[in-house]
Write a structure and sequence with these properties.
heterodimer; A: 513 residues; alpha/beta; 6-stranded antiparallel beta barrel; B: 176 residues; alpha+beta; 4-stranded mixed β-sheet; 8 helices; 4 strands
Amino acid sequence: MAIKASEISDLIKARIEKFASASEERNIGTVVTVTDGIVRIHGLADAKYGEMLEFPGGSFGLALNLEQDSVGAVVLGEYKHITEGDTVKTTGRILEVPVGEGLLGRVVDSLGKPIDGKGPIKAAHNSPIERVAPGVVFRKSVSQPVQTGYKAIDAMVPIGRGQRELIIGDRQTGKTALAIDTIINQKSSGIKCIYVAIGQKQSSIANVVRKLEEHDAMKHTIIVAASASVPASMQYLAPYSGCAMGEFFMDRGEDALIIYDDLTKQAWAYRQMSLLLRRPPGREAYPGDVFYLHSRLLERSARVNEEYVEKKSGGKVKGKTGSLTGLPIIETQAGDVTAFVPTNVISITDGQIFLEGDLFNAGIRPAMNAGVSVSRVGGAAQTKLISKLSGGIKLSLAQYRELAAFSQFASDLDESTRKQLERGQRVTEMMKQKQYAPMSVAEMALSIYAVNNGYMDKIELKKVSAFEAGLQAFAKTNYKQQMDAMNASPLLSPENEAALKKISEEFASTGTY
Amino acid sequence: MVEKVTLARPYAKAAFEAARDSKDFARWSEMLAAAAATVADQRVVKLLSSPRVQPADLVELIAEASKADEHGRNFLNTLAQNRRLAVLPEVAAMYEELRADVENITDVHVTSAVQLDEAQRTRLVAALKKRLKREVRLHCAVDATLIGGAVVRAGDFVIDGSLKARLERLAAQIMH
């Protein structure tokens, strides 16, 4: 890339003009000890809690422990060059990250610095990473859906804009896959996505970025990456930075979605910092404020009213509501949801999607346990078409599971029980869905309609997937207009119902599956 | 790990209050400074942690070296009983701070690029008196690497008016 010399000199000139040349007044201290990214500083009598501190070599720290004779701080980033006796200065600032449209499509670290090699970020605004959540008066109840593109989730545990829905499960149960597919499905919904990767392998993060690029989903996505190799302080900060970037969109009357993958690792990073800062350990050696660590973060996910948006945008945006939907991820150990961090986050969020290893291995993917997965506020936001069609599905699945367990002992079953069992098996089979294949509302409606109205009852269980795929292909080629109309107005109107019926009947009679 | 300053604080405060009540700041200052110097001596450091040396003998040694009076001896005895003789340098420093505070005097360290002349010093003292709202005791030093200007330090408070710092900030401004 050719750079003109005049441009550079203009830039430098502008910077120099902005440069105030007055002598600076600071509060200073001396480094007493440096231990694993934690620095104890003597002096700094005027340091404030959470203030940024300047170390020699241009690195910064965060004052976290204010004691009688010393200040405990964490270094943000590399700390190997800091030695005992170094001078530390206060800055009078709190930590800020760049926010705005310019970050979309980029991969940044916890401080908002680009790490994707695509040059500097053009961000017009900066925002403090810690902010108090919008108050009660400025909130609005959740009423619009976030389509994940998964039949099982959109039908049984619908998520609304502004909701916090926990994705919880053991390792290798498809938690990240679910999150990534949700991002991919937001291509045309206008929801901006932020994916915060905490304590993950660099290779996994690179994989996510590549997959999103392949599906053309990076345009509306920001990735905040704090991999396993960065210091604990950066892993601790990543969710807050990501949240600040999401709040930018919420404040301007737009909708955003943030995924924290995962908060278990963030709690670990915070535990490490707290223990090194000599804060007393509590349950599972976590510090006393680990609940607050997550509650203050997730409280910032909200749906805000028009008044709030108008106030925050300085009167520029009127009559629009904003939202920040939160999808935190928690990794359990051997399905233990009673551990400290899982119970905390379950109690904070508005519901959870519980993924199970056994289901995953049995080939049921997404491996959602429909019995314990709930959405406490999403029902009000569910698309009317889907909510009408899938009304009894959760209940009937629960009944089916009970029957299935019971019928293992019975040799011959009566007709109605057998039918219920077969229907349950077909619903379970129909709910399976491949990765990177999100469905539109009309497609979901068609599949659910077909299974609910017995069109799949006569199909061999093994062929249910094939039948469904055929049905979708058939609808796409022959009834595109009706399907598009259904997507445009997702209600269970007589026309839509008639269309669903017609497609199902016609396809079932052709038998081309 | 408790820091030495934290350990020293109650002793320094006690010494300071004793000195204030007897209106004898100067003598306590001398005594504490001499005691601190004794304790800091390499030969004495070895004795402090030795289990063979009786605390009473240590007190005798330090008291003699620092020409302590009866009150001073009592003070040293208390320190010895609590095995805190090693914090004497911190006690002395903190005592001086407390004394300066009550006498409304601040020690100001000025590092300049070139030697300050008498007129400059007077002007600096006058300006600092106004800024810090207290009497100023000036300690000057020269550091040519500052290129120009001066750095004024009073405790934790620093006014950096050196050319070096300005250039560094200019560099940071251009790079970020």
